[in-house]
Amino acid sequence: MAKARLLVVEDDPHIRELICSNLESEGLECTPCGDVRSALAHLQKELPDLILLDRILPGGDGLKVLQKVRELSSLPVLLLTSLKSEDDKVEGLEAGADDYLGKPFSLRELKARVQALLRRSRMQPGASLRLGSLYLDAEGHQAFRDGQPLDLSPLEVRVLRSLLMNQDRILRRDELIELAWGVDYEGYDRAVDTLIVRLRRKLVGEGMPGIRTARGMGYRLSLEPEA
User: Fold this and answer.
1) Strand, coil or helix: 110
2) Between β-strands 134-136 and 129-131, what pairing exists: parallel, antiparallel or unpaired?
3) What is the pLDDT of residue 1?
4) Smallest Cα–Cα separation from 180: which of 9, 189, 73?
5) Where are the domains of the chain?
6) How far is CA 211 from CA 93, 137, 138, 176, 216, in A?
7) Which fold has domain 5-121?
8) Which residues fall within 8 angstroms of residue 92, CB to CB, at 6 or more apart?
9) What is the pLDDT of residues 180-221, one digit of tens each?
10) Which listed CATH number (3.20.20.220, 1.10.10.10, 3.30.70.890, 1.10.3720.10) goes with 129-222?
């Protein structure tokens, strides 16, 4: 199997070198960038398999790079940032990031997050999923309502896929986090609740299922009307 290609966008040269050297020791190929301009220039030439993206960069917010990535691809993006507030975390995830790692972080955790994202992106396509007027393609990248594509972020698609694959039971919040992000996380409760609210607004129309809340338990996808 070819080496996974990573774009490491980090303005601190020491951190950038540390990240690249440690991930390259895991058999990964890293291309370093130090600012928004060089990152965007690289993306115009080729797309990597995964991006490690600092939130605060010379030349603009890292979310500018993330926005461009999402115009081009659903490839996984791991945000690296010193911003601590929950609002910043939710903002990054809503913008289309797949994961969020706060600074300072351990190299062991960084490697685990990177490998989890790469594993998930390499998963073989499964069967397509349907419920009422809702359809999720076998690649797991696009959802449709009566044949019309829904405007969903990659993370919203993964949350929806997790709910579709578990229609027969209630998914606890921690289960949904693990299924959507790939590993166990703490402090993502509000991010999940925000994503559920956004998905509910998009899953409208005749024959469409709704996301039901089982108070104190979790969420499930159902065609039954809200009780």
Assistant:
1) helix
2) antiparallel
3) 45
4) 189
5) 5-121, 129-222
6) 20, 19, 21, 13, 15
7) Rossmann fold (3.40.50)
8) 55, 63, 66, 79, 81, 100
9) 665 555 556 677 788 888 899 999 889 999 999 888 888 999
10) 1.10.10.10
Beta strands in 59-209, from DSSP E residues, in sequence order: 60-61, 77-81, 99-102, 129-131, 134-136, 143-145, 148-149
186 burial via Cβ count (<10 Å: 0-12, 13-18, 19+): exposed
pLDDT digits 0-9 by tens, 131-175: 999 998 866 578 899 889 998 877 788 888 888 888 768 888 888
- Residue 37 tokens read as 């301009």
Please state, in angstroms and rounded to a whole number, the distance separating the CA atoms of residues 6 and 77: 10
What is the token pair recorded at 128? Answer: 């397509």
Task: Show the CA angle centred on residue 166, arms to residues 161 and 167, nearest 5°.
Answer: 100
pTM, rounded to two decimals: 0.66
